[in-house]
C-alpha cells in the first residue's frame, strides 16, 4: 500500500504532545531501559514494539474497564486498546528519535458495521513501515518487520474493509474524542469511530 505523509516536515513525526508525551518520566525510564540492551535503532524499535505488544495487555483481551489515551498512562497503568497502545509505542520510538506516524484501518466489526483500528508507521531507510502493537492472541500474530507487513488484521476489501493511506503526526481527532469522552471501556465501545 502506498502511504501518504500528511505533514511534509519530518520533525512533526518526532514531536512530543499531550498524547505522545515522550518527555514524561515513565516514558523516558522505559525508553532508557529498552535502549540499554539494544544494538542499534532497529533493535530498539523492535524491542519497543514487542514490549508494547506483549507487556501491555489490550484492555478488551484482559477485560480491563479502564480507558487510557495518553502514552505515559498506557505505560504506567499497563492497559489500553489499539489506539492507546499505538500512542505508547509512538512515544517510545519518538523518545529515541525514530519518526513515527499514526495510521488506521477500517475493519468489519463482525456485527454488521465497521470500526477504525489504530496502528503506527515507523520510518527506516527512507521509507515508512506499518506496525501493529495491538497484542497477539489466538488468530492474531502481529510482528515487527521492515520487509513485509505483519499486521494483526489484514484488510479484506470484499467485506468493505480498507487501509487508510494517510500517515498522521498526531492521533486522528475522532479517535481522541472517543477515548477522552469514555468513562469506561463499555462506554468507549459504543462511541468508537466506524470510519475516518
TrEMBL record:
Superkingdom field: Bacteria
InterPro entries given in the database record: Papain-like_cys_pep_sf (IPR038765), Transglutaminase-like (IPR002931)
Segments forming domain Transglutaminase-like: 29-133
Pfam families given in the database record: Transglut_core
Entry's transmembrane regions: none
Entries under SUPFAM superfamilies matching the protein: Cysteine proteinases (SSF54001)
Protein name per UniProt: Transglutaminase family protein
Lineage: Bacteria, Bacillati, Actinomycetota, Actinomycetes, Kitasatosporales
